[in-house]
Design goal:
With 416 residues, this protein is of the alpha+beta class. The protein is 57% helix and 10% strand. It has one domain: Cytochrome p450, CATH 1.10.630. The strands form four sheets. It has a five-stranded mixed beta sheet, with helices on both faces. Strands 4-12-9 form a three-stranded antiparallel beta sheet. Helix 6 runs antiparallel to helix 10.
């Protein structure tokens, strides 16, 4: 039975409770998108480009997905807001366009500027190379891809975990609750609450220790935020520093880890693409390597899309044959994976090509909430994979194993 038939019959199986039908629809979408996303989204793009059922709208064509993500006045990040507030507080990823948003994003841009990227690149490459070299011939890509950004969080943000594994576990649990668990699975919520109960006091201790240390004003993001407190009345309070660090690190470690692992998995399935990426890595051609990784991320993205909520009654795809009116309160799934495979816009979407224009990619969203750390992400993801790709004989030693939306393991072998 097709997805369209299944979602139409939800009311018969779930009953009249609107909230239960919505949750069931989200779970069905999530399950099908994980199992076999390409045919699912092709069907929807062709038959129901804007499918509205059970207070959920699924938007799949390129132009319509970009419309949802860039019409900030109409489509809110409210689906993430309640869980973000519960676990962390008010962070930019759960805040719509407002004076408060502008104040917070401005402070964060000053404290974590794009100009940091070159020195961060050296740190990422050195750590990734060290981890690959020390194991000698076999490694779990998923572990490598989690460990490097966890260490980078300590180096750049100034907020190391109690240890790498604990910080990784905290961030994965909270990311899944905030950005994935619209079906309100209580087990996911419980793991996230436990993680937040560990991360919040840990960050409070780090902030207090740095402020109490006269030699603690290091030039990292935490040091800059502390320095701002004595320079401007608009600076973050200690509590706001904690809130923003939770938001930053929760959006940072899982994103980089998942994107890197999935991209390597995509390359391993494509021998010609793998050899192209390996040649770029061996030649030290970081631009060519980045192009290969970005295309691999298109073919196997870290997630299928992003949620928004209609703030008012509005029309999407106006003037097209599938123009659709969405009532206020409709939750909208903007299927970025579908958009970047839309053959009305993207040439030969099933082919691996490194000459695509940048706007054909939506790895980091679009509009007001385009990923804050995208410049670091687009640097770090290729450089984490680089020491593996440049080694001879790189081959799959096992299939990709997932734990929910995240990679649990991807074993590879290579010549030491």
């Amino acid at each position: 039975m097709s997805f369209l038939d299944d979602i139409d019959e939800l009311a018969d199986r779930v009953g009249d409770d609107a909230q239960e039908r919505f949750r069931a629809a989200v779970k069905m979408l999530e399950d099908r998108a994980r199992e076999d996303p390409v045919p699912l989204f092709k069907l929807l793009r062709t038959v129901r480009p804007v499918l509205v059922r059970h207070e959920l709208a699924i938007v799949t064509q390129y132009d319509d997905v970009r419309e949802v993500l860039t019409r900030d006045e109409a489509f809110s990040v409210e689906p993430y807001r309640g869980k973000m507030r519960r676990l962390a507080g008010d962070f930019i990823l759960g805040t719509d366009d407002s004076p408060e948003y502008e104040r917070d994003i401005s402070i964060l841009r000053l404290a974590a500027p794009r100009s940091d990227v070159p020195q961060l690149a050296a740190f990422v490459e050195e750590n990734a190379e060290g981890l690959v070299a020390e194991v000698g011939g076999r490694i779990d890509v998923a572990d490598l891809a989690k460990r490097v950004p966890a260490r980078l969080a300590g180096h750049w943000f100034g907020i190391p975990g109690p240890d790498d594994d604990t910080l990784i576990a905290w961030t994965l649990a909270m990311f899944e609750e905030i950005f994935v668990n619209l079906k309100d699975d209580p087990a996911i919520a419980k793991r996230a609450d436990e993680a937040a109960a560990g991360l919040r006091p840990h960050l409070d201790e780090l902030i207090a220790a740095r402020k109490a240390d006269p030699d603690g004003r290091r030039d990292d993001v935490l040091g800059r935020l502390i320095a701002m407190q004595s320079a401007s009345p608009a600076a973050f309070s200690d509590e706001e520093i904690r809130t923003n660090f939770i938001g930053l690190v929760v959006g940072f470690v899982p994103t980089i880890a998942t994107a890197t692992t999935f991209a390597v998995d995509a390359l391993l399935d494509r021998p010609a693409a793998l050899e192209g990426a390996a040649a770029a890595a061996r030649a030290g051609d970081d631009d060519a390597l980045r192009a290969h990784m970005l295309e691999a991320m298109r073919l196997q993205p870290q997630g299928p899309g992003l949620f928004r909520r209609a703030q008012r009654d509005c029309v999407i795809a106006e003037g097209t044959h599938h123009e659709t009116r969405l009532p206020a309160g409709t939750t909208v799934f903007a299927a970025t994976q579908s958009a970047t495979n839309d053959d009305d816009v993207v040439d030969d979407p099933g082919e691996f090509r490194t000459d695509r224009p940048a706007h054909h990619y939506m790895h980091f969203g679009a509009g007001l909430h385009e990923c804050f750390g995208r410049f670091v992400n687009v640097m770090a993801i290729p450089l984490i994979a680089k020491p593996l790709l440049r080694r001879a004989g790189l081959a799959r030693a096992g299939e990709l194993v997932k734990a929910g939306p995240f990679p649990a393991s991807l074993e590879v072998t290579y010549e030491p």
